[in-house]
Design goal:
single chain; 209 residues; alpha+beta; Ribosomal Protein L25, Chain P; RNA Polymerase Alpha Subunit, Chain A, domain 2; 2 domains; six-stranded mixed barrel; four-stranded mixed beta sheet; 5 helices; 13 strands; 22% helix; 40% strand
């Protein structure tokens, strides 16, 4: 999925200028890195928000069209209005095709419905992590990472080392020796309550005997 952002240079800085920009329906921002000077931007809020709401916007190489000149960037930071759910400010970082980047990529959990721990054990999936930081070249960056739960038993977990990654991509945590759990299947409280209810139902009968 290719995402392009249209922006123009923003010459006026300061809190007052940013407030006026937002009232006019635009978002102040900045692009930096790549051995170049930082450039202040302004972007149409409506156009930006249409892209921003897609998951891929947060974990993909983006095409920034700045005054007709395009460059590859990553979303690095943003601020939202606490009440209006509008973007107040946004930061982008330039990327080089030959330098590895570190980006948090979301997990997509697959085949939970056929996992033995759910289908046979009546458990529920507990998502320990919903994303993880990866290291790779920009061309290898995945929009998401699939986590296959098809063989997961109740009480068991899937760890980073068990997840298949695309070629050229590695988990930053795993490279530092942290094989974190990503998801597990836990027994439901309902299951425990049902067992207890069965035991309670048997007690009067046993007493009667």
């Amino acid at each position: 999925m290719s995402i392009e952002i249209n922006a123009v240079k923003r010459d006026v800085k300061g809190t007052g200028a940013s407030r006026r920009l937002r009232r006019a329906g635009n978002v102040p921002g900045v692009v930096y890195g790549g051995g170049k000077d930082a450039v202040n931007l302004e972007i149409n809020h409506k156009e930006l928000f249409l892209q921003f709401r897609h998951e891929a916007f947060h974990a993909s190489i983006l095409n920034l069209n700045l005054d007709g000149k395009k460059e590859s960037v990553l979303l690095r930071d943003y601020q939202m209005h606490p009440v209006r759910n509008t973007i107040q400010h946004i930061d982008f970082q330039r990327v080089s095709a030959t330098e590895k980047i570190h980006v948090k990529v979301p997990f997509h959990f697959m085949n939970a419905e056929i996992a033995p721990g759910i289908k046979l054990g009546g458990g529920i999936v507990a998502h320990v992590l919903t994303e993880a930081e990866v290291s790779c070249l920009p061309k290898d960056l995945p929009e998401f990472i699939e986590v296959d739960l098809a063989n997961l038993e109740i009480g068991h977990s899937v760890h980073l080392s068990q997840i298949k990654l695309p070629k050229g991509v590695e988990f930053v945590q795993l490279a530092h020796g942290n094989d974190a759990a990503v998801a597990s299947i836990a027994k439901t409280r309902g299951g425990v309550s049902d067992d207890a209810a069965e035991g309670a139902a048997e007690t009067p009968a046993a007493a009667a005997e």
